[in-house]
């Protein structure tokens, strides 16, 4: 979201959008239930105040709004402190969880597998969401105008960094889902090595920077002209970080493109990949098992837990990011409009719901991952242990040529789904 409502009252072009999940948000707007005018307020409190055309800066017409403007407050104190408490709690929770995941992978050699690099990359991007995106967005929501001074490069970098961290996080989740699908559904294919994973991760970051680059290009800092009466209140400098797109509706087109890349395409791939894994695990007809009832029951429980985890991951991703994308598209379609306190609060909760993924990802991809968790407490065996009574070799046309591919038990940390998922494929 941007400071466009204020800026439009100065000199911003009419097509500058009001809201955006990736750009700097400067909430301002009139509270419709406040009736006393700025002129009356100044006349009462400053005997020498003279009404003129400058006494209704940005359309503010109330004592409360003047007070918030001098304090750079966009919302009432009640919501101000509620949002601070919720955001700070999420920042701390997400930061601690992702730092623990990063430390687990970096500090322990047994955790430094090729596939754990995907989880490490996700944790780093989510950590950026916690320490950069969430604090900056909170400050922007609470402020009436740009809170970071006159340095224009900050206006550009802040918006771009916010976008990059979001893109990297969601694309990393998509890459993890696709890699799991390849490993489970096509277990005989050559596994990803360190070089391949590093190349993919580098591509993710480069792609994210390219996707976010329009924000760096089209963001600019705009300084407002302060009326004399407000200068008497100590307001000498007001800036707005706005977007100035070269084409009409450029902001709206970029929002549609961003929603597709950041949400629609990832949710389709993630859902499709995990549904494919679910079907594969249910149709393991090639497995011939000679199991006791107890082992069958245990395997069934593990399978059920795996399926529940897959469904939970897809649902959390879809639910957490949908409100923010819908809100941004809706706001862009109807901009420019006056930004009210209600809109700010709704946006804040939509944004917090999206950012909640940075808090849940360490649980879903780290500590609820049997392989990841097991790697914290015991040495990984290089090869799977298969119970003697668990599998039976079957002859093929050329004799006994059955190759067993253990998709989950080969390496405790190689594959991020529950252990004991065994697939047998015949080879000639």
Automatic annotation (TrEMBL):
Xref: InterPro entries: GPCR_Rhodpsn (IPR000276), GPCR_Rhodpsn_7TM (IPR017452), NPY_rcpt (IPR000611)
Q: Which UniProt keywords apply?
A: G-protein coupled receptor, Membrane, Receptor, Transducer, Transmembrane, Transmembrane helix
Q: Which residues cross the membrane?
A: 79-106, 118-139, 159-178, 198-218, 252-275, 306-324, 344-368
Q: Which is one Gene Ontology cellular component term of this protein?
A: membrane
Q: Which family does it belong to?
A: Belongs to the G-protein coupled receptor 1 family.
Q: Which PROSITE patterns does the entry link to?
A: G_PROTEIN_RECEP_F1_1 (PS00237), G_PROTEIN_RECEP_F1_2 (PS50262)
**Organism domain of life:** Eukaryota
The record's section on CDD domains has: 7tmA_NPYR-like (cd15203)
Q: Which organism is it from?
A: Ceratitis capitata (Mediterranean fruit fly)
UniProt membrane topology term = Multi-pass membrane protein
Q: Where in the cell is it found?
A: Membrane
In the record, what terms sit under GO molecular function?
A: neuropeptide Y receptor activity
Main subcellular location of this protein, as a coarse class: membrane
**Pfam annotation, one family:** 7tm_1
**Which residue range or ranges hold the G-protein coupled receptors family 1 profile domain?**
97-365
> Which named protein is this?
(Mediterranean fruit fly) hypothetical protein
């Amino acid at each position: 979201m941007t400071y466009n409502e204020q800026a439009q009252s100065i000199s911003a072009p009419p097509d500058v959008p009001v809201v955006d999940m990736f750009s700097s948000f400067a909430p301002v707007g009139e509270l419709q239930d406040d009736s006393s005018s700025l002129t009356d307020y100044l006349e009462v409190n400053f005997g020498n105040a003279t009404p003129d055309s400058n006494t209704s800066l940005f359309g503010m017409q109330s004592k409360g709004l003047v007070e918030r403007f001098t304090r750079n407050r966009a919302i009432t104190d009640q919501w101000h402190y509620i949002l601070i408490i919720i955001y700070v709690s999420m920042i701390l929770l997400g930061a601690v969880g992702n730092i623990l995941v990063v430390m687990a992978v970096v500090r322990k050699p047994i955790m430094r597998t090729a596939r754990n690099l995907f989880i490490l990359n996700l944790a780093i991007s989510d950590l950026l969401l916690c320490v950069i995106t969430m604090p900056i967005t909170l400050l922007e929501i609470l402020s009436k105008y740009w809170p970071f001074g006159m340095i224009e490069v900050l206006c550009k970098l802040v918006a771009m960094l916010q976008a990059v961290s979001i893109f990297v996080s969601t694309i990393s989740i998509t890459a993890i889902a696709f890699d799991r699908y390849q490993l489970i559904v096509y277990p005989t294919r050559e596994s990803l090595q360190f070089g391949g994973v590093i190349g993919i991760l580098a591509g993710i970051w480069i792609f994210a920077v390219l996707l976010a680059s329009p924000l760096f290009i089209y963001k600019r800092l705009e300084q407002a002209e302060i009326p004399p009466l407000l200068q008497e209140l100590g307001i000498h400098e007001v800036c707005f970080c706005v977007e100035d797109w070269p084409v009409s509706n450029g902001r709206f087109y970029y929002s549609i493109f961003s929603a597709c890349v950041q949400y629609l395409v990832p949710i389709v791939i993630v859902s499709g990949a995990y549904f494919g894994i679910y079907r594969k695990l249910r149709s393991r007809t090639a497995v011939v098992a000679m199991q006791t009832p107890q082992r069958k029951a245990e395997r069934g429980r593990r399978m059920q837990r795996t399926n529940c985890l897959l469904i939970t991951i897809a649902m959390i991703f879809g639910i957490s990011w949908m409100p923010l994308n819908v809100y941004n598209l809706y706001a862009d379609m109807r901009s420019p409009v006056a930004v009210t306190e209600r809109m700010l609060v709704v946006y804040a909760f939509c944004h917090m719901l999206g950012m909640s993924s940075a808090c849940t990802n360490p649980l879903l991809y780290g500590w609820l991952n049997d392989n990841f968790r097991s790697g914290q407490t015991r040495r990984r065996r290089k090869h799977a242990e298969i119970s003697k009574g668990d599998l039976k070799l079957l002859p093929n046309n050329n004799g006994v040529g059955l190759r067993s591919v253990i998709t989950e038990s080969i390496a405790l940390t190689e594959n991020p789904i529950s252990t004991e998922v065994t697939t047998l494929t015949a080879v000639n």
